[in-house]
Every structure is written in C-alpha cells, then in structure tokens.
Amino acid sequence: MAFVKDMLRMWAHSWKRFISIAMITLLGVAVLTGIYAGCRDAFRSTDRFFDAQGLHDVQVLSTAGLSNGDIAALRKVNGVAKVQAERSQEVTFDLDGRKSATMQEIGTNGIDQPYLQEGRMPKKAGEIAVTRKFIRDSGKRIGSRLTVIPESASSDTSDTNGTNGADGTNETSGTDEAPSFPTKLTIVGVVLDPQNLSNPDGYSAMTSFRSTATTDYTFFAPSDGVTGTLYTSATLLVKGAAAESTFDESYENTVKQVTDRIDGTVKTDRQKARRQELLDAGNKKIADARAEADKKFADAQSQIDANRQQFNQQVDQIVSMQAGAAAAGAAANGANAGAAAAAGATTPQLDETTRETMRETIIAASPELTQAKQQLDQAQSQLNEQKASSEHTLKTKENELKTSIPQVRWYVQDRQSLGGFSALKSDLDSIQSLGNAFPIVFLLVAVMMSLTAMARMVEEDRSLIGTYVGLGYGRLAVASRYLLFALLACLIGGGLGLIAGFLGIPAFLLVVLQGMYVMPGLRLEYDWLYGSLGIALFVVGVLAATIYACVQEMRQTPASLLRPKAPRAGSRILLERIRPVWNRIGFLGKVTARNIFRFKSRLIMTVGGVAGCTALIVCGLAINDTVADLGIKQYRDIYQYDLMVVSDDSDASAMRTKVASDGRVTSSLDVRIESGDLTVAGSGDGDSGKAGSSGSESIQLVAVPKKHLSDLGEMVTLQPVSSGILGTSGVGKTGSLKLDDDGVIVAQSAASALGVKAGSKVRLTNGDGVQATAKVSAVNRNLIGSDVYVSETYYAKLFDSKDAKNTKNSKSSEDSEALTWNAMLAKLSGSDTSQTDYAESLEEDSSVMKAVSCAHMADSFKFDLMGAVVALIVALAGGLALVVLFTLANTNVSERVREMATLKVLGFFDREVHHYVNREMMILTVMGVILGLPLGRLVGGMLTMALNMPSLYFEVEVKPLSYVIAAVATMAFALLVQLFVNPVLDRIDPISSLKSVE
C-alpha cells in the first residue's frame, strides 16, 4: 500500500511530464485518426448514397446505339444483377444565350435514380426534374415552363445508309428509332444527379476545371412520352458489388471480373451482330426501294402500253376505213347498188407489209397522230432511262453499303469514367494520403519526447529505485511505476485524441467537403478497430521509450543506484579548438557552448524535436503555396492567350466572324477542341474499348492546323519536362519544344498521373469516340487541365481509319474536307477586367458555346479543401511544437536544479538565471529551425508528389515568406514557453536544492 501511495505521490509530483506525454499523444492520435475519419465518413456516406440510388457499376456505350438484342445479351453475362436500357437526347434552349442539356429518361429498373431534393418526381409526359444548378442559373422554380429544341443531329437517323452520329446514338436499323422526348416541359422537382455530386452553391470554381460534362445541364423525364427503340446506353449492377465499398480495391476487382467477361464474350459478338443488323437494314431498304421502283416502272409501262394500244387501234381503224373505201369504189364500177352495199360491208384482207405501210402513211399525213406517236416513244425512252438509272443507283448503294457502315464499337466503362465520382475520390484520396504521412512525424516526435521525459523521471528517482530494489521489490514492480505512468498518460491523451479525431477534425473537414459536394445522409462514425490501433501505436512507442529508460538505470546494482550518479567527465568541445573564436567568447558564453555540445542526447532531442515541428509547418505551408500559385502559373505563365472561345461545328464560322468584328483581338489561332480520353496503351489487345480504368485520364484534345503549327508556341508556353525527385521536375528551355507530325504533346498533369514519358505509346479517344494508338513526342509543362496537342496531319493519320469513316469529322482521303476549327485562342487588348467582361458577353451570343477568360480563371482559381487541410495541419504542427518545447524546457530545468541553485548562491539575479537557461534553449531552437526548414521542403516535395489528382500537377513551391513564417512561429513558441519556465526557475530554493543526498 505504501508502494502505491508513493507511486501516486510521484505521479502527482510529475504532472507536467504527464501533461506533456498526454498532449503529444492527443495530437498524434488526432492527426492519425482525424483526417482518416473525415475521409472515411465521406466515403461511407457516399457509398450508402450510391447504393440507395443504384448508381451503375458498369455502363456500356456503342457507336451505333444499343438494340434489344444487345440488352438481352448483357443480361446473360455471369455476374450481372440488373441491366437497365437508357434513352437520352441532347437538346438546346435559350437561357441568356444558347445552352445545352441532356434529356435523360428515368430508368424503371432502379439504376441511376435521381435523388429528390424538392418537389416531386415527374410522372407524366412533359414533366421534368432539374438539378439545383439549373435552378440557380436560370432563376426558374417548380412549376416553370421550358421549351427545348432537339439537336439537329438527331434528324440524321433517316439516312438510307444508317450512318452514325458523334454521340453514337443515331444509328438506325429497320425498326430502330432514335430516342425522342417531349419539347414543351414543366419543372415539377429538383433532384441531385447521383453521377455528379458537385455542390453548385459551394466552391464551384475549384471543380469547374475538372468538369467532364458534355452539356450544361441534365433534365430527368419519365418514360411516358419518350419514343424510340434505340437505346443510348445500358447500365448494369454487378452481383456482390453493393456489399463492397465503392472506393475500395475489392469493389474494383468485383466489377472488373464482369467488365472482362463483357469484353471477352459479349462485346465482339454483339459488335458484329449490330453491324450485320445495320447491313441487313440497309439491304432491306435497298430491296424495298427496288421493289417500289419496279412497281412504279411496271405501272408506268402498263400505262404506256395501254396508250400505245389505243393509238394503234385508232390507226388500224383508219387503215381499215381507207381499205374498205377503196374496195367499195372498185365494186361500184361493175355492179348494182345492192352489190356495192354488200361489198362495202366486207373489209378487204391486207397483208402485214401493206398494212404497216398504210399505218406509216396515215401517221405521217396527220400532225396529230405524228405528235401522239412521238409522245409515246418519248415516254418509253424516259421510262427506260429511269429504269437504267434506278438500277445503277441501287447497284451502287449495294456496293457502297459495306464500306459506308463503319465497324460498331462498344465502350465498357466503370464508375471511374464518371467525372463527379473520380473528382470526389481523388480529392478524398489526396487528403487521406496527407493523413497517412503526417502521423509518422508525430509518432517519432512523441517517442523522442517520451524518452527524454521518462529518462529524466527515472533518473530523478535513482536513489528511490535503489531503495526499492534493495528492499526486495522486483525490477518489474519498480518499473511498473513508470510504465503505468506513461500508459495512463497515453490512454488519457489518446482518448481525448479520439474525441478530436472522430468528432472535431472530421466535422471541420466535412464542412469544407460539403461546400464542394452534396452528400446526403452524412454522419460521423467511430471506427473501434482503427481508433484502438491508433492509441496502441502511440502506447507501444511511448512504453518502448519508457522501458528503455528503465532498463538503462535498473541494470545497475542497488548499491550503485543509492549513490549519486557520477557527473559526466569533462571534455573539450570542437569550438574550444578554434582559438580565435573561443578566446573572444565570454565566460557565460563558453559555459553555454559546453552545456549545449557536451550533453549530446539533450542536443539531439531538442534539435530533432524542433526540426520535426518546423518541418511540419514548412510542409503545410509548402502545400499551401503550391496550390495557391497553380492558377497564376497556368493561366498567366503557361497559357499566353487571353481568351478561348468554343462553338458547335455548325457555328464555327459565325463565331470567328463575331469575334473578328468586335475588334478586341490582337492575334489569334484557330484550333479544334474535343473532349476525349488518354489511356496508357497496354500490352494486350490494343483494340479494347474499355475506358475509365486506373490508367485513363480525361483530356482536352487540341488539333492545330498544319500551316500554323509554329503559332502554337505564341499561344501556349511549350517547355519539355522530365520527371524529377522530391516533387521537382526538370523543365527545358522555353520555345525548345515544337509540335510536329510525328507524335502528340501531352500535358504534364496527365503524364504524371499515368506515368507517361516522351516516346511512350498511349491510346487516344477523340470527340467521336474513335480510338487510336499515338506516340508521345514530348511532355509539356502544364499544371491545370490535361491538354493533348496534335497536328492536323497526325490527327488525320490517327483517326482516319475504317473506324473513323463517316463520322462528322473524319476524312477519307487527302482531298477530303478538312477539320472544322471549332475553337479560337486569342490575345486581347485591354485590362483583365475588360477581358473578363468581354468573355462573359461572348457567352450570350448564340454562336458561342463557351468563352473562357484566362484572367478570370487566374483570379478565381482556388482549392479550399486543400487550404482547409493545410490550415489544420499547420495548427496541429504548431501545437506539437509548443508541447515539444515545453517538455524539453522543463526537462532541461529539472536536470539542472543544483546548477541553477549554485548560480543563485553565487549571486545571480533571477533575470540573469532566466537569461542563462533560456539562451541555451533559444540556441537549440535556432539550430532546430535551421535544420527543419530544408527538411520541411524535402517532406513537402514528397507529399505533393503523392497528391496525384485528375487534371492537376503540384509543382512544389515554397515562398520565402513561408520559411519566415515557420521560423518566426517556432521562435514565438519558444518565447512563449519561456514565460512558463521562468516561474519554475524562480521557485528553485538554493538551500534545499544543494543538500547532499547523504
């Protein structure tokens, strides 16, 4: 009992060490669990939402649309739980200029169901539900009416050849019809699209640069009123996928098994079958056209024959009359009148030659008969020509049918292809990577500080330990006094850390996340396993340090422990050997130097602890500086143009005329811009249509006219880059990179994420969904967005295959129609404000689809999520620095109580004692700061390298001000600690402190 009381008394006496260990553990556990818990809560709530709304696991698209046969084949694939055939149509409407939207049919099989936020779901034809983004932009509300116009491309499905449109839905067969939706609409509800959780009322500026949407809005309509038997896509749910977290590798593996089966069994067969359907449909149309033509020609021939027969009868009648008259005249010369009458009633018999001669004579003598015969002959001739022409046309169509219908392509995509899903996942993964890295530093610092504090605590009780061991107490029992002390401090600090880690930090992060994404049903959850392991990690580290300190002391005999520890032997320090310097240092300065360098363990612990904390602060500020400069570097340094204008192909000429007529452009470059994908070319089947894998990136494909390749360098800074280390990259000389016809130039942001280098082979998908394998000629410095530059000639070489035939942008020969330059890069006159205003005014023009001002993008770009996490990390690092300095300062004082008492006896005033002790701590702090600044840059580079996000490359940047802030903050914490340490120095009693142990 006495042992326990003494232990409790000792614990109470060491309350400062207890608080220090508890605080370090609190901060470490909070960092370890907090960021993880925030991301985990977001992952789980999103996963529950996706499961509730039936977000598809797999989506199948086809360049020829999907038929009922395709849907039936997908249902038979092993592992598929549900298949939903979907119909959609692109429409336009007027909203401060022309805007586009996708009319999406609400599926009836429970897949991709929109989440109702306000109003009700549409049920009747003409009713729609819209997103909150549309409500915000349009100012409309529930009950408002809207009239839309279907895209003109949808009318192309009536072509005999059955050619396909760019969206892959315009292919038709005999009975297939493209989807058609009502055009007069009424808004009855506001919904959240599960495929895009972006918050339109939040930090929209930070996610707009990663938007992959092809239209401005999505309208959801019921099946009522929707016509057409051709499906735009098919969405699938995979068996067992809902039981896995959509963000885990196990989910990806489950889905991949099904996508592989589709690629291996269904896709090839259905592609061939679908093309055969189109061929059969074309042949049937040709056969129907031939039958209809034959019928018309037969009818016309019958009419001509009837008219000719009537004509011949007329002529024959005249011939008979003339022959009869001649016979009657001859009979009248030798008979009476009765005989003449009888002879007149009998028609003489004429041979065929005589009859034909008489016909010709009669026709020639009569202008009316001549004209009638000519008309009959002309009609017959025209009919014969029409027959020949029709037969030639049909023969030509039969010959051209196979070449005019391209190979059908299927594209099997998973959730990674959804822009909203991949953006959310990459954001959370990047933040979680920070949460996995920083706790390592906290743990190392906690072990170092615990070793320092517990070693000093054990050393102070040296004689007491010897007494207990001499009285027969086991060394384990004696060590338990300190082990339980450290354990209790860790458990209390860890428990508070769990509260902060699973409640405080996640609540903070989720507030920021909800400003970016809408996550219904979000709630904070506790992970018992992870929380317990988090505390256990720090408990093991601190207890290991405590055991080491106890073993170092208790390995001695009780007699040795009862005697005071012999002072360290005097030794020279390196500075003493530099006489010119040493001789000019005062007495107290020499004492300070000896105290600093002779006690190497204190030196290492203090400098190491301060350096670690300073490095954390620099690392956080480095991430902040890197993110803060992304917009300026991209839109003012890399992009030299001031304005990018994009239009539909049909409006390209009008758009250029509009911009030219405004007189604001000083120089410009016409280009073609398409949304596509870049995939690392694998070693397998290069013909795979699978997209959305981990090796895929959404890109902006920029085709440059062959006559203006050199002008690209005036609009975009072309600098070749090579992979570096620690977040850096080798950047070549400006202007040393040229676009040619031998390959494409890939943006650094995409190349870094996919591991692409100059000389690599990649698979490009253009705006028509046509894929081709391209060579990467160079990687260009680029931080935001994923641009891929290609020359006009190389573009034609890539996409001028059989797959690209008959698409709206493909060319069949060198003499065929050139690409449509649907975009313009331009330099403008005027201030940044006027350029921004001009871009906004252009978007109101009907010929302009999108106008982007680089000045506006540079000023408005921000990344609040990363900024919030950086602020959190810097605050925690500052708290750790304060605790570390407080622990080291108190340990330093407790080790030197007799020394401080001696100084007081020698006549040192309290202020002089303060200066004597604090000067050492300040020097050690400065040394730690000097070491921590480059260490922070090193760690910051490694962390920013790990933040691989879609369409972003973090080019590490640490501003001089950040180094100053980190150094000043650490020094400020050191000065703050002095305010707590000075009263401790004042309370040292020289008499009691100098008493001998004996």
TrEMBL record:
One of its GO terms (cellular component) is plasma membrane. Residues 145-181, 373-399 are annotated as: Disordered. Residues 388-399 have a biased composition (Basic and acidic residues). Residues 437-548, 872-977 form the ABC3 transporter permease C-terminal domain. Residues 373-386 have a biased composition (Low complexity). Residues 152-175 have a biased composition (Polar residues). This is ABC transporter permease. It comes from Bifidobacterium adolescentis. The lineage of its organism: Bacteria, Bacillati, Actinomycetota, Actinomycetes, Bifidobacteriales.
